[in-house]
Amino acid sequence: MGSEIWLGLLSGIAFGFVIQRVGASNADKMARAHLMMESDIPKFMLMAVILSAVGLLGLEAAGVANTRVLPTSLVATGAAGILFGIGWGFCGYCPGTTWAAVGEGRMDAVFALIGGLAGAAVFAHLHEFFIPLLYDPFNVGQITLADWTGSRPAAVVLLVFIFGLCIGAIHFLWKGKNGGQTP
Amino acid sequence: MDKKNNSPLYWPWLPAAFALAGIIVFIFATFGPPASSSGFVSLIKGAVQTVAPEYVENNPHYATMPDTGSWLFAFVLGMAIGGFAAGRTGSIPVRDIPEIWEKRFGTSRIKRFAATFAGGFIILFASRLAGGCTLGLFISGSTQLAVSGLYFGVLIFAVAMVTARLVYGNTGKEE
């Protein structure tokens, strides 16, 4: 247990450092990304997924991957996605960036964190009402792209292709080209 | 003055994505799928169980999550430390109210703090309904090729873009 906590802390420090430096913990940059004015953050997120998926394939080949696929509930996952999008677009923070922004000293993020704790507590209290109502009846299981492509490497290729297209589209459709930052 | 906020203050996105992916792969090797909304649950579980242990014991949501003595809580705490260290060693300006919000809604701190409290409430409520957030469901899920993560990801980006348009209107466009 001790080593698990140190690993978590170390991973968190590295993660928080990177997302602060790229500007993801800055709600102003996040809002500009949502408004199609700056493309850095969404390209960063999608590229991180592409590289992680390829890396995870390597871990799986080496037999050291710890995976846990969350099920898809057509209604609960969908309704939660819509709600989450409203909150994210409204305040410019997502749960992870909130912690990094609090560390930076952004006071509005402190309130996002407190609000988040309240939201988690309220959901936990209502878990028994919402999960059987919205989640369980529409749960189609732990489906992945590999169920369609037949193999995991083929699914990774498909994912890389789709996310790569998205990055290209964002690069050209978003207004700002980010002041020469693009390598 | 705001136009300058892209210059060398921020890391370019591509090397930063390599750095983040390296960390994510490290986490998959040493722990499992990274998550951050779970850290909120761990913290609130740890807090509530000190005053109402029976309530926490009988709650099905807390039953699925460890308390603060866990990787999940250490990770979010680490993110705050990492944000602090990055902020202190860099030169990205720290503001209590984002520039674009100030342009649209003025300098009232109460208004901004009320908004982020509400926003924080909504994103965590939603994350707990779906079982994860931007990191725990979209990034971790998509990395594992999960349909749940991709489905959630499409919706959060699309709805956030529409919401931001409604919230900010043409603010920032005139620059």
**What's the story with the biggest beta sheet of chain A?**
none
Count structural domains of chain A. 2
Write the H/E string of chain B, N to C: HHHHHHHHH
Oligomer: heterodimer
**Percent helix range of chain A:** over 70%
Q: Give the overall form of chain B.
A: globular
How far is the N terminus from the C terminus of chain A?
Answer: 42 Å
Number of DSSP strand runs of chain A: 0
- Give me the Rg of chain B, rounded: 19 Å
Global geometry of chain A = globular
Protein structure class of chain B: mainly alpha
Quick rundown:
By secondary structure, chain A is an all-alpha fold. Chain A has helices spanning 2-22, 27-34, 40-62, 74-91, 95-104, 107-135, 146-149, 152-173. Chain B has helices spanning 13-30, 37-51, 53-58, 60-63, 71-89, 99-105, 109-130, 134-143, 147-168.
Structure explained in plain terms:
By secondary structure, chain A is mainly alpha-helical. Chain A folds into two domains: 1-35 and 71-141, no CATH class; 36-63 and 144-183. In chain A, 74% of the residues lie in helices and 0% in strands. Chain A has eight helices and no strands. Chain A has helices at residues 2-22, 27-34, 40-62, 74-91, 95-104, 107-135, 146-149, 152-173. Chain A is globular. Chain B has two domains: 9-94, no CATH class; 96-175, no CATH class. Mean pLDDT of chain B is 94; it is low at 1-6. Chains A and B meet through helix 1, helix 2, helix 3, helix 4 and helix 5 of A and helix 1, helix 2, helix 4, helix 5 and helix 6 of B.
